[in-house]
Specification:
The protein is α+β, with helices and mostly antiparallel strands. The protein has seven helices and seven strands, in the order E-E-E-E-E-H-H-H-H-E-E-H-H-H. The protein is elongated and about 60 Å long. It starts with a strand and ends in a 12-residue tail after the last helix.
């Protein structure tokens, strides 16, 4: 049995037997991994509370025949403490964790950019510096971009005609000109497109000053764009307050 260390974010947990859990983490060096936390459901567990969703931890693992085993866990940042005590932050954070797991289709495939994005998003969410819905939508758009599905909010996504354009197409990958307009396009308000572009680029002064109507429309477009590329919706996204 060999040992190795890595840091990661706990994405979810599942009961295993009477006292154990299967713990899924997105790690810096090993991508998404599924591990076993022995005895973590017992009240006497030394690190059970550190292996809960949203926790940012540094772990030591022992390689196993099927699943590796967590032998040590040290807290880097207890994001779960501030996220789980607020419904808006909790539901937004849960959608982030589910998205991160879905965007890492292969286990042990390095995903450093997505890992760093998730850590930063959870830090922002826990700090309550921005509206949870905005933080979630920014994470979704940037996560899709890292996965190779960056939307275009300026030039035509099909022919690269210089924008701005008025029509948005989920299947085309963003804004489209009149000549490239496919079926099912929508015409978002100008401030909605400005908000989406701000969330994608991290322009928080623009995002924070946006109006509720633009936020609702931007959230709907983001959810549709995510569902198109994941090929099915997120269970947790329906619980997010908009």
């Amino acid at each position: 049995m060999s040992l190795y260390r890595d840091e990661g974010v706990v994405l979810r947990t599942q009961k295993l037997g009477e006292a154990d859990r299967i713990v899924t983490l997105l790690t810096r060096g090993n991508g998404r991994i599924r591990t076993v936390g022995k005895g973590v459901r017992r009240t006497t567990s030394r690190f059970g509370a550190r292996l809960e969703p949203f926790m940012h931890v540094d772990c030591q693992f022992a390689t196993g025949r099927t699943l590796d085993i967590v032998t040590q866990a040290e807290t880097i940042a207890p994001y779960g403490m501030n996220i789980t005590d607020d419904y808006g932050r909790y539901t937004a954070g849960t959608a982030m964790l589910e998205t991160a797991e879905r965007l890492t289709a292969e286990e042990r495939e390095p995903a450093v950019q997505l890992y760093l994005l998730l850590v930063g998003a959870l830090r922002t969410l826990a700090g309550a510096t921005h509206d949870p819905g905005l933080v979630l939508d920014a994470f979704l758009l940037r996560g899709l971009s890292i996965a190779g599905f960056a939307p275009s909010f300026e030039d035509c996504a099909r022919c690269d005609a210089r924008g701005p354009h008025r029509l948005f197409s989920v299947q085309a990958g963003g804004m489209v000109c009149g000549s490239c307009r496919p079926a099912g396009t929508v015409a978002p308000a100008g401030d909605t497109i400005a908000l989406l572009a701000a969330l994608l680029t991290g322009d928080w002064p623009v995002a924070d000053s946006s109006q509720p109507r633009a936020r609702r429309e931007a959230s709907g477009i983001t959810a549709a764009f995510l569902q198109w590329h994941l090929e099915r919706g997120l269970r947790s996204l329906g619980l997010v307050e908009r």
